[in-house]
Amino acid sequence: MMFVHIIEMFVRQRGHLLCHFCRCTYELLMWFDPSVDVSPGSTSEIKHNLVEQIRLFIHKVTDPLHPKVNANRPQNVKSLSHPFSREKQHLYSVFYKYQPIGLIRSYFGEKVGLYFAWLGVYTQMLIPAAIIGVIVFLYGCATVDDNIPSMEICDPRNNITMCPLCDRACSYWKLVTACGTARASHLFDNPATVFFSIFMALWAVLFMEHWKRRQMRLNYVWDLMGFGEEEEVREPQRSGSDTSDVFICRKGPDRFFLFFLSKWSISVTFAIVFGVILYRISIKAALHISTYPAARSNIRATVKTTAAIINLIVIIILDEIYAAIARWLTILEVPKTDKSFEERLIFKTFILKFVNAFTPIVYLAFFRGRLVGRPGNYLYVVGSYRMEECAHAGCLMELCIQLCITMLGKQLIQNNLFEIGIPKLKKLLRKRKSEVTSLQEEEVKILKRYEKDHFLGPFAGINPEYMEMIIQFGMVTLFVASFPLAPLFALLNNIIEIRLDAKKFVMELRRPIAAKAKDIGIWYNLLRGLSKVAVIVNAFVIAFTSDFIPRLVYQYAYSPDSTMHGFVNHTLSYFNVSDFQKGTAPLEPMHLHYKVQICRYKDYREPPWSSTPYDLSKEFWAILAVRLAFVIVFQNVVMLMSDFVDWLIPDIPKDISLQIHKEKILMVELFMKEEQGKRLAVQDNHNQETCTIPSSDDQSPSRPRSHSVIHSKASW
Length: 716
Prior knowledge:
mainly alpha, two-stranded antiparallel sheet, two-stranded antiparallel ribbon, 8 strands, elongated, disordered C terminus
């Protein structure tokens, strides 16, 4: 204890010059006796050991501390914790108020301030998107009873017998049993979704432009216009096995090795998605042969929901694994600067997490139901597993269910529950392992600020917070044509997310060292890339996943009265049950209490009585051509509109631009006045010298003049 008091007295005189000495002393103690447990949970016989005191002292003199808020402060004096959700009664009651961005910047620095400013702009821009999405959803609800294809499916008078959905275990079924799925699909698959996709593409551009203007305003207010970020050289890594102070100076691994590891990580996601596909196929067959009536009541909904939940659990687990893999791969590359390390880490983490989150969704949107084959000639994988088909209303409803469960699950479990539960659990464990648990509550209250902050969690940066929002931005924009309620769920989540981040930064984490930043860095490029990819993805979703193009082609090319009457029959092909492959026919052919000779399946193929039975029909090629044409037109038109909006809106607000221009003019005028004053001063000195010094015949009269000219040029 005496040693620590001596160090504290010396620090008051020498300041932070002792930080290096303290760290060296700590490492020296570890080098002499590596077996000493210096963690906060040490159970040494000495109650206040020297190593723990030095650890607390190093934290005291090197890390910034949370200020001590006086409970008896005046009412008109409020700390950051009051508007920034430190007190529980202000956590959700102030959700409608603007964030104190100025206080956040003063407390945490510009880098954290820019994150909360960006999150506020993003949440604010989600309001109009959520309103339009709700209107599109309500339009689907209002027109579901007027949708002719749904009415034809639900009409029992059509008496359409469909082919089995699986081999042997499944039997023939009536199309009218898909009435509920068809009506639910219309809620998300209607003409308004095309308009909403165009709107969301323009919304993404407006959001990016709005943020650029907001960022420029903050740069001006925070005096960051001339700030240039300096890249600090990254320190080499220490050896983990050697206790001596030796640094590892190694050459980065081969690029092929890193490429192989990245591809291996992505292939794990593909393998898990394939495993979920096999689960859906097998569980569907098992439910069909089940003897329990409850299990056979709603097989499709059971399989869809359970598969989506399994995908969600796998995504959450792999997210944590991929974050560690991305950091390990970045360390292997040995980046030279901290900025290069951060950008590479962010890019690798984003790629792995993006593939992990969107691979099941991409499969449902673009691959499921297209690699199936036809009755009598189905495509099989892993032996006897037949590839799964979409429902008659299409795969859009299943895509919507997968998006809804993934988005809500990630936001509820990973973004909110983990942010509340894990920091509190870690804080509780640190307190239990420390000596504070043995103290009374009165003694805990009188602990010094640095002793209290020592039990808070370390600040891990704001990159995980950005990553959550970027993945959410992808959920909102990429497949919004199939799930128009995504902006609404994102808005509700972000209102809570802002306050949870505020509470976590102020109460659960140690105060970080303030860092300057002029922009959000590589995150802006990722956002801009996602907004561009979203246009292409939504074009393919509308063209190939939904029935928008087939309905359009039928109405204007094949319908006898230019209406949608007869559309369902037009999309169904015929199959002769005698053409089943051996061992694939239903075990219960009399399930419908009559003998079936012709069944129907959704595809555009020639009937069995034609000259080319079961070949793709001309309607298939016509619809495919229209789909490809729609993708090209939609992509180019929306991209052109986005670029026009980008060009139309200036990056710098007009008032800021005028103010910067005025300041430049004032600076030039001030500079000119200063230079003019220097010239006059030089001229006055020259005149005084010519008056006091007597003229001589051998002295050149032009020398003082040249001397003043030289001074004038030097002043310039």
